[in-house]
Amino acid sequence: MAVPLDKLKWIYEMMAKSRYYEDQMAEVYMEGKTPVFNIGAGTVPGEMHLSTGQEPAAVICAHLTKDDTVTSPHRPHHHAIAKGVDLKRMTAEIFGKETGLSKGKGGHMHLFDPDVKFSCSGIVGAGIPQAAGAALAAKMKGKDWVAVAFLGEGAANSGAFHETLNMAALWKLPLILVVEDNAYGISVPKTASTAVASNDLRASAYGLEGFYVKDNDPIEMYQVSEEAVQRARSGEGPSIIEIETYRYLGHFQGDPEVYREKEEVPALRERDPILRIRKLMMDEYGMDESELEEMESNVKKQVDEAYSFARESEYPKPEAALEDMFN
């Protein structure tokens, strides 16, 4: 099944925007910090977990509406961008600014935008039961809304994953779990922590549908997630999608990555999904270089404006935090 051109453009723009956003964040995050252990508050406080290379997982959002819920783990930027979270307010939140989504109190691992029903948690697996709650609410209200929980393959070994799947299957909730298998749970390889080859195989234990997407393929992710979303909307219950994706960067910025082979990332970058989509659009959809460059220029402008907005915004005043706490 071919992907409609308008959807393909959306996929390309979303992935290009996510990549450029995180390329900028990788540089901005190191401002004011020493290279060793990222000591110093700098422009952006706290830890930083980037999803560079994992953009295809967020392609499922091409099938979602504003009324559908998305929960994300501690590596959330590509999901947030794909779901339509306000980019300026998101960046301000990461910078700890007053104009942020939560007035700078949540930071990069706790983004929350009720306008598009998006939230994320820094705790492994925490978003899974939250998404199930949203799916239950949709069913009780008689809505065709869908809830999607993104998680890493390490979180699929947590109790929240299995307990939620059991309930979701029992109640036929419109829930989809998207497992991003980037091969490592922090520094532990999947082969040393997980008994099954891929977590979609676990779907059969709960009577669910399981889908597997190989080689970080955004087109296959689009097709598979379309089926999963249609099933959820029509009352056929939950699904698990596992995508074989690739984390180009460490678990966190500053990660020495001693657990990786030297040539691992260069080899992965040769199969970069953004370059593959770009080639597809030119070879099979007849788009020329200038059209793609215009799309890239547009997303870069949006990202640059978001960073400028965050830099120019004010930090919250201490007394304002107390007012929010007690009012």
From TrEMBL:
The UniProt entry, under Pfam families, shows: E1_dh
Q: Which UniProt keywords apply?
A: Oxidoreductase, Thiamine pyrophosphate
Domain Dehydrogenase E1 component per the UniProt entry, residue ranges: 45-319
Q: Does the keyword Transmembrane helix apply?
A: no
Task: Extract the PANTHER family matched here.
Answer: PYRUVATE DEHYDROGENASE E1 COMPONENT SUBUNIT ALPHA, PYRUVATE DEHYDROGENASE E1 COMPONENT, ALPHA SUBUNIT BACTERIAL AND ORGANELLAR
**Protein name according to UniProt:** Thiamine pyrophosphate-dependent dehydrogenase E1 component subunit alpha
Query: What InterPro entries does its record include?
Result: DH_E1, PDH_E1_Alpha_Subunit, THDP-binding
Q: What does this protein need as cofactor?
A: thiamine diphosphate
